[in-house]
Amino acid sequence: KAGVTQTPRYLIKTRGQQVTLSCSPISGHRSVSWYQQTPGQGLQFLFEYFSETQRNKGNFPGRFSGRQFSNSRSEMNVSTLELGDSALYLCASSLEGVTNYGYTFGSGTRLTVV
Amino acid sequence: ILNVEQSPQSLHVQEGDSTNFTCSFPSSNFYALHWYRWETAKSPEALFVMTLNGDEKKKGQISATLNTKEGYSYLYIKGSQPEDSATYLCAFKDSGSNTGKLIFGQGTTLQVKP
User: A3, A20, A87, A114: which sits with the fewest CB atoms below 10 Å from its CB?
Assistant: First the structure.
């Protein structure tokens, strides 16, 4: 069965621009979480969507937003990009969020802001 | 602020050596502790999800133990092989919500030399 698909894999943007990243979860999974990894930092939780609703949000500014569609695909948007937003963005999917089997991660989108 | 600490930060061992890492997490409001293996250029892959104090789980030559009362988990690799080289992440899930939010440690990077 297909895994978690993230697009694009790499992205270069200029400060001040906005960007949209996409995540398609495993078929049947309704929970999608987003994480950011910057150099020297562990994975930081951004937000989680379940059945098109944001269930939880991490400690990130309002420039970071997301949404989930009826087919469970999720997008995250970062507006007014800053250099510090350069990071690897990972999404993870699970059936319902609470899982005894762990989350399935995508390969990530590497965002570089110049 | 919930904090998850992993030690050591990195480890270099010879093929055949056994090794172990530590994950420390809050001992209150515990729900689950996840372990992931993250190989370079790949996605994090779930190893274990542990929920009960005293839990011991095993997958091949990798095993993990859990102590929720004192807030730590150990990951053991018996007879390390070069293909075990990866970053090992632990992640804490608290009982405060039923969402998919995980708090990750910064990881232990293992390098196994042939």
Answer: A114
